[in-house]
Request: fold
Amino acid sequence: MKIAIVQLNPTVGDLTGNAQLILDAAKKAAVAGVKLLLTPELCLVGYPPRDLLINPGFIEAAGEQLQQLAQDLPINLMVLVGTVTANPNAGEQGGKPLYNSVALLENGEVKQIFNKRLLPTYDVFDEDRYFEPGDRSDYFTIEKFKIGVTICEDLWNNEEFWGKRSYPGEPFSDLAKMGVDLVVNLSASPYSVGKRKLREAMLRHSVSRYGKPIIYANQIGGNDDLIFDGSSFALNRRGELVCSLRSFQTDFSVLELATDLVTNLTDSTNELSVDNTDNLKSVNNEDEEIWEALVLGVRDYVRKCGFSKVVLGLSGGIDSALVAAIATFALGAENVLGVLMPSPYSSDHSVKDAEELGKNLGITTEIIPIGELMKVYDKTLDPLFAGTNFGLAEENIQSRIRGNLLMAISNKFGHLLLSTGNKSEMAVGYCTLYGDMNGGLAVIADVPKTRVYSLCQWLNSGELGTGNKAIIPVNILTKPPSAELKPGQVDQDSLPPYDILDDILYRLVEKYQSAKQIIAAGHDEKVVKRVVQMVMRAEFKRRQAPPGLKITARAFGTGWRMPIAKTWVQ
Reply:
């Protein structure tokens, strides 16, 4: 029996468009002789739908679209579709109004509904806000095969693998006891560095534990700050990888489920094989993986928000260079505008470096000097600032002038403004509200400074297919990073060296370590306490920042819910 996986890139709320994506895949599957097509979690409504789920009209429209899709699908093809369904017992004992569901569609009808049992509430997830957990696991039968259905988190509660139990139930165990021949998982699992290998290791452990093959179907695409990598795969009953769909791309693959027909099916030696072994492909280099994620995230954010062109400030520094490169590969050079805004403190090499970068990328660049504007601000503020020393307020005016100019260009021409601050800066508040933080999307807000350098070096290595051409000018990679807001300024005047800073931030933000633990790991006590204090004090800035693409286990986005007004100190 042939089973197909389709990696779709749904748009949240686009019920008609998402249904068409499913229908197109179903027609392709029917031509290939497929009996069962798997689609990702909530692919009909898009994931995550968030508070659209509170709108009764949206839920009604989703139900109507599901019925229409069932009627439009090719006959004799079963399709598992991720959607939302109503909870008939809502209101009773505080039950939520909806289920996160998978609908089995066949021959014009909704044949069966499966509800997600384990609802994540950690990090970026908030499913308990909307959904009632399903009360049992279930399967359906096709050509005498019992196919157990799970939805994303349902397969993540593996106590042996994690060393802990996060939920009271374990759907895989329940399905194994039912004697299923195959477990399928429809997922919308967001990307973070190394996530693909983690999923494979976890599910391989489950396969070895229960002896049941798994097909894992994940969505791809960018929705707001989240990026979904796809990376769908299948494991046979021995835990061997028999199918691996491409990361960060829509993809389609057909598998064969076979069994020894002499043996009772509940004790069968069922196997999975793949029609096309070319799909055993994965991205192994972390820099390449992050690059592809950010390119996809920018492309989808721009497209799904209705933009076609972007603008950003080019300082001659490494952060704006990386953002410009990502935007160019995501959207095409003709859709990227780089604006140079030198001040009297800007070095000649910064302007030259930015111009060289623009030529390497083939993007349009414009130069708008801000020296005269700075004089106007100084003159306007002189009566109020008289008798005070030149300091941060005056330095930050330069950044705010630039932010105003970029927003004016964005407003005038309808370009989306990309901000260029990295995670290290966002963490400690080394950024200016209403200045360099202006923008509609913070492309590298979850990329630490040390990783920014690593990505640029990888980009210049030629592995992206650019040959021997160095996209990022060498001087940008080698000069000390500086905001150039006063003569001779470098970042390390205000911050620890980035390799030290980033390790402290990694331990603090992603590993949840206390100041005492970080100091015990070998970091200077004064430096650690200062960094922790800077992180805590910068929360009001991060709350006003544009959405940033998530690529690490914990980003300063929807999964970071720190209070602004607080007195607790580590």
